[in-house]
Design goal:
Layout lengths: L9 H10 L5 H8 L3 H11 L1 H50 E3 L5 E4 L4 H21 L19 H14 L4 E2 L1
Parallel strand pairs: 2-3
Antiparallel strand pairs: 1-2
């Protein structure tokens, strides 16, 4: 008795083996009604294993690119939020310190003390450093001038600011 020869779509069988890492020779043989040895023979002689490895690597690369892109997008969103928040803080500080006088000029409020100005200067320095980090500039450039006031105590800084204000008085609103 002659057995009926089953027509197998070998390109489909190969594509399934190459694209699905969980597929085995035996599962494909059962699915397509072919002997496992026949599927194995095609696999070996047609290089399915190398195609499978190349396909898996391509998928990993694509997923890695998507993951990196997603991470970059998330980081950019965080940076935008951070920069917006520091801008709002600057505006709040400026609003508390400055007013317009009768001539329309922006001047320091009369009730702002030297200590307030020193604290604001320190806050601005921290905001600037925070912005630099958010933008990816972790360290100051090599040729960036060093802050001459960073090593001063609060009292020394207040004295320095007071001396500057004596030499260059700030107009204030009464």
């Amino acid at each position: 008795m002659a057995s009926a020869h089953k027509c197998v779509n070998w390109p489909d069988l190969r594509a399934e083996y190459v694209s699905d890492q969980s597929t085995t020779i035996h599962s494909l043989a059962n699915k397509f009604g072919v002997k496992p040895k026949t599927v194995e023979w095609h696999s070996l002689h047609e290089g399915w294993m190398n195609e499978r490895k190349a396909h898996a690597e391509k998928v990993r690369e694509k997923l890695g690119d998507q993951t990196a892109s997603s991470a970059a997008d998330a980081l950019a969103a965080i940076h935008r939020q951070h920069l917006t928040a520091t801008k709002e803080l600057r505006e709040m500080i400026a609003h508390k310190l400055k007013v317009r006088n009768s001539d329309g000029q922006v001047v320091v409020r009369s009730d702002v003390s030297v200590g307030d100005l020193a604290r604001v200067a320190s806050a601005y320095a921290q905001l600037l450093e925070s912005d630099r980090i958010a933008l990816g500039a972790d360290e100051l450039p090599v040729n960036h001038p060093r802050d001459p006031y960073s090593d001063l105590s609060d009292e020394q800084l207040y004295a320095k600011v007071a001396a500057m204000l004596e030499r260059h008085p700030v107009k204030s609103v009464q």
